[in-house]
Amino acid sequence: MILKDIEKYAKRNWTQFLSSITVISDSGNNRGPLVTNGKVIYHFDSICESLFPTGLVPTSADGLSITADVLALVEFKSGFKQRITKRSFDAEKATCSYTGLVCNEYWELFFENQKRKREELITSIRFKAIESFITIEKKILPLCDDIETHRPLKVKFVVVIDEVGVDSMEDTLAELAGLGDIEDNCYVSIKQALSRLKTQVDAGGNAYYYDCIEVMSAQDFSNFLQMGT
């Protein structure tokens, strides 16, 4: 929960950081924007760059949305979509035309490399969630000391990824039932990695970290935006 009126402070001081979700979700890696939508939010990376000296800028979420009820940090992350997984692996197509055999060593290395890349992406998201919250709490809230809010803001962290939600739905249900393999389910993996960043309480009984953490596909996020307009 946040007890300062960040929304009012942002409107007074951060208008130059407003940008469309299309622009904010474009990582500049020639893949194009993860989400194409004209809705305008704050470019949180740019805000952080304005608050810290060069070389000391913390890693941060891409976007920041503030309403009367919720402060939402949004991280757009590509690289999760995998065309070949252990579930979708086609042994017939992977058979060598010369030997007539599947090179198990190659495919084990292939899947291990995919797993390593996914773990790196999830670690990056976790660091961004942690350092973004610290920036809000230690750097931004003190700037709002003279602005009291009429009601507390919930703090949300939203991760938007390029994996298709339907593709992982069956895996998610299986994982919840204790029947699935978490390695191929990025949604479950991300949620588990961020689980300790939700509704923590310090020694003084004060709540900190996020009230809500959501992981969704780019399409689900687009649908959410359309419902909100």
Summed up, what is this model?
The chain has 7 helices and 9 strands.
Describe it.
- It is a single chain.
- This protein is α+β, with helices and mostly antiparallel strands.
- The chain has one domain (2-83, 124-228).
- It is 39% helix and 20% strand.
- The chain has helices spanning 6-13, 21-24, 44-51, 104-140, 165-176, 186-194, 218-228; strands at 2-4, 18-20, 40-43, 63-66, 70-77, 148-161, 200-201, 207-208, 212-217.
- Strands 1, 2, 3, 4, 5, 6 and 9 form a 7-stranded mixed β-sheet that branches.
- The two termini are 25 Å apart.
- The model has no long low-confidence stretch (mean pLDDT 84).
Features:
seven-stranded mixed beta sheet, 20% strand, alpha+beta, 229 residues, 9 strands, 7 helices, two-stranded antiparallel sheet, elongated
Chain-wise SSE layout:
Elements: E1 2-4, H1 6-13, E2 18-20, H2 21-24, E3 40-43, H3 44-51, E4 63-66, E5 70-77, H4 104-140, E6 148-161, H5 165-176, H6 186-194, E7 200-201, E8 207-208, E9 212-217, H7 218-228
**Helix/strand-derived class?**
alpha+beta
Average predicted local confidence, pLDDT: 84
Query: What kind of sheet is the major sheet?
Result: 7 strands, mixed
Which parts are unreliable, with pLDDT below 50 for 5 consecutive residues or more? none
Task: Evaluate the radius of gyration.
Answer: 20 Å
Helical proportion, percent range: 25-40%
Beta-strand portion reads 15-25%
Q: Give the helices and strands as they follow along the chain.
A: EHEHEHEEHEHHEEEH
Question: What's the domain count?
Answer: 1
Shape: elongated
- Kindly report how far apart the N and C termini lie: 25 Å
Say how many strands there are: 9
- How many helical elements? 7
